[in-house]
Design brief:
By secondary structure, this protein is an alpha+beta fold. The protein is about 35% helix and about 30% strand. The chain has 3 helices and 4 strands; from the N terminus they run E-H-E-E-H-E-H. The chain has a 4-stranded antiparallel beta sheet, with helices on one face.
Length: about 120
């Protein structure tokens, strides 16, 4: 079985909705990291400081075929095409350890549903 890492970066206020969408799409485990985002066309305050936006980075490791379904679902439901909506991408993983048998079986069921 081949795996991909799916990364979703959304405004902090959309974090809970994004988690629900990832779970519905087949993610079985999600790691959430907090951060600050800066845009290339950032606005300046009167003191000349840039405005930072609080971001949540959601990371999940899933079966490769499941990653595409997750990305399609996230794109539609989170409206990532709109400015400031967020960003999602996947990366292929060469080697993965630490995924239990139950999680592997869950991935297999999810992929078989798409076939």
């Amino acid at each position: 079985m081949k795996f991909s890492a799916v990364v979703l970066i959304v405004p902090e206020e959309d974090e809970n909705r994004a988690v629900d969408i990832l779970k519905e799409a087949g993610a079985t485990g999600i790691t959430i990291l907090k951060g600050k985002g800066l845009r290339h066309n950032e606005r300046k305050t009167f003191l000349g400081l840039g405005l930072e936006r609080k971001e949540s980075l959601l990371l999940c490791v899933v079966e490769k075929l499941l990653a595409m379904r997750i990305l399609r679902t996230v794109k539609m439901q989170m409206k990532l095409d709109l400015p400031g909506g967020g960003l999602a991408f996947s990366l292929p993983l060469g080697s993965v350890v630490g995924i239990g048998l139950a999680q592997m079986q869950a991935f297999r069921r999810e992929v078989e549903e798409d076939l």
